[in-house]
Specification:
By secondary structure, the chain is of the alpha/beta class. It has eleven helices and eight strands. It starts with a strand and ends in a 9-residue tail after the last helix.
């Protein structure tokens, strides 16, 4: 599976990404978790200690590597450089592995905007394409609320776009905008997961207002998720209920994918 997980900031997408990564790893799969969110905290959600996480180099900050592979210095815009730099060795060289999950942090392209044509963005786009099109691992991308790291050439390799929402209209408005962006680049399977729900009314609100999506399930509010964050532990290790909920989400996702239902409306 190649999954892109996105949503409004703070809704719980990184928690879901970490749970799915460990669930696939527990089945014996090789899993590559990609932190493609500028507010990178997937390492913490995976329970990687801060002192070890601090040694993970974001790809966008590897200035010497970027110049070596593209032929241009990071931070420059325009000029001549390679548009298809070599990236096949990057996952092994710059990832951190914990409990069967290999974490790769993309980092932020700070100049020229998210869609800039600069050496950093070219290398990252080439790397994402390589990971989605030419690698056999399960790939789980924890993304920001957009499709900036994806392009038309890689969309066929994305098995599903999962938009995480909380019970609130702004979160659902963000989900609708993301779905529109995803469709623009050819992604058809776009699902919703409800997070931070506390009762039946919360869950029904999402079901009633996400009628353009197939709702995969819910990660309900849990004090243990907050406890895991405070202690720097993975939710997978401390909250059996959240693990069970994520497993049900994973099962429904796989059933829909095998059944060939690309984001049918939840009606």
């Amino acid at each position: 599976m190649k999954l892109a997980i996105t949503g409004k900031g703070g809704v719980g997408k990184t928690t879901l990404a970490s749970l799915l990564a460990y669930l696939y790893a527990a089945e014996g799969n090789t899993v590559l978790a990609i932190d493609a969110d500028p507010d990178a905290n997937l390492a913490s959600a995976l329970g990687i200690p801060p002192e070890e996480a601090s040694r993970i180099n974001p790809i966008s900050e590897l200035k010497d590597l970027i110049e070596e592979r593209t032929g241009a210095k990071p931070g420059t815009i325009g000029g001549f450089y390679k548009l298809n730099p070599r990236v096949d060795d990057i996952p092994e060289r710059f990832s951190f592995t914990k409990d069967g999950v290999k974490l790769l942090v993309m980092g932020t392209v700070k100049q020229g905007g998210g869609g800039c044509v600069c050496p950093e963005s070219v290398l990252i786009r080439s790397l994402v394409s390589h990971l989605l099109l030419r690698r056999s691992e399960v790939v789980i991308m924890d993304m920001e609320a957009g499709v900036e790291h994806l392009g038309r050439g890689t969309t066929e390799a994305v098995d599903a776009f999962i938009v995480v929402v909380e019970p609130g209209r702004r979160s659902l408005q963000t989900a609708a905008a993301i779905k529109s962006l995803a469709r623009d680049i050819g992604i058809q399977r776009c699902y919703v997961v409800g997070c931070k729900t506390t009762n039946t009314a919360d869950r029904q609100f999402i079901l009633d207002n996400a009628t353009d999506f197939e709702v995969l399930g819910f990660l309900n509010y849990s004090p243990k998720i907050i406890e895991a964050d405070l202690k720097g532990l993975s939710v997978f290790d401390v909250d059996p209920q959240a693990v069970a909920e994520a497993r049900e989400i994973k099962i429904k996702l796989e059933e829909l994918y095998k059944g060939g239902k690309p984001g049918e409306a939840n009606r």
